[in-house]
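How a chain folds remains the central question behind the approach discussed here. For one protein, we set the task of working out the C-alpha cells from the amino acid sequence alone. The sequence in question and its C-alpha cells are set out directly beneath this paragraph.

_____
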Amino acid sequence: MAVSFETLAVIVLAGLGGPLLAIAGRRRFVPVVIGELLAGVLIGPEALGAVDPANGTVTLLGDIGFAMLMLTVGMHLPLRDPRLAGSLRSGAWVAAIVAVLAVPGGLLASAVAGTGHAAVYAVLLASGSAAVLLPAFQEAGVSSGEVMTVMAQVTVADLVTIVSVPVVLQPARAGNAALGGVLVAAAVLALLAVSRLLASRHEVHRLRRLSKQRRWVLDLRLSLLVLFALGWVAQKSGTSILIAGFGAGVMVAVLGGPHRLSTQMRGVADGFFIPLYFVVLGARLDLVGFFAHPGMLALAAALACVNTAIRLLAAVITGHSSAAALAASAQLGVPAAVASLGLAEHVLAPATATAIILAALVSLAICTVGVELLVARAETAGPLSAGAAAP
C-alpha cells in the first residue's frame, strides 16, 4: 500500500514530539530522541495504529533515515583534529580495556535476561557515541587533554563496534557481511583517492564557487549520491547499509567538507529523515511486551548498569577520572543499529529491542552528568591556573 501525505504528516507531527518533550523538561536531560521514540510508539500498531512500520515505503524512508543517522555518526568523528593523534594511544588503550570488560558484561546481561545474544550485548557495551559527545563538548566549550582522550576512546569504539554489528547479529552470514564490508571500504578508499586527486584542480574550485553563488548545493548532492551508491553496494554485497552510511560519514570527516555542507546535511537529516527513522523505530518497539516480561526489565537494567560499571573500572585501571568515564558511557548509534537490524532480520524480539533502546537512553543521561562534571572541573581549573600565574 502506498504511503499518503496523511501518513507522512502524521510521522512528521510525531517527530515534533522530540523537541516538545525537550522543551517541557530540561533539554540536557531530555534528548529529543526520547520524544521521537515515544511518539512512534503512540502512533504505531501497539497504540493508535496510525502508521504501519511494515509498509514498504515507510520501511524505505526509515532505511534512508538509518543510513543518514550512521552518516552523521561518521561525520562527527574528529578525524581531522590534530589533537586526536596525540590522545589516540591513551584513548585506544581505554577503549581496549572497555572492550575486554564488555565480554563478561555481555555474558552477564545474557544470563540475567535469559535471551542469549551475549556477543550482541558485548558489542553494545563496548560501543561509544562520538555523534553525542562531540556536539556536547563543543557546546560546553571544553577541549582539555582529558576531553580529547575521551573523544579518541569513543572514536575507536565507534569504528570497531559499528563494523562488528552485522557480524554478531548473524554469525552464519559473517563471511558475507565481512566481504560486503570490505567492498564498501574499498569503494570509500577509491572515492577518497579520487576526491583528493580532484580537490586541487582549478575546474573543481570554480565549480564549487558557482555552486555557492547560484545555490546549486553540489556538495550535498554529491554526498547523497555517495551515500546511496554505497548503500547499493552494501545491499548487493550482502552487508548492511549501516556500513555504507558510516563509510560515507567517515569519508566526509576525512575530507573535511565545507561548513555549509554540515549545515545542509543537518537540515536534510535532522530535519526529516533521522526523526522519521526514530519515529518508525518507536512504532516497531513493544513497550507492552517489555513491561510484561521481567526478563526484559532486567536486561535494560543490566545493560545500563554494566555499561557504567565497566567504564568506571576502566578509568580506575588507566588512572582517568570518573567524570571522563561517565561522559564516555553515551551510546546511541550502535544500539539503534542493533535494534533496527535485529528487528528487520528477525534476530531480536521487539521487547528485546525495546530494552536495548531504553538502556541506551539511560546512557545519554549518565553521559550528561559526566559532561557537566568535566565542565565544572574545567571552570575550577581556570581560576586556579590564573591565580597561580598572578604575581
Summary: The chain has one domain: 59-270+293-378. Residues 18 and 34 are 6 Å apart (CA to CA). The radius of gyration is 21 Å. Residues 59-270+293-378 form a domain with the Na+/H+ antiporter like fold fold (CATH 1.20.1530.20).
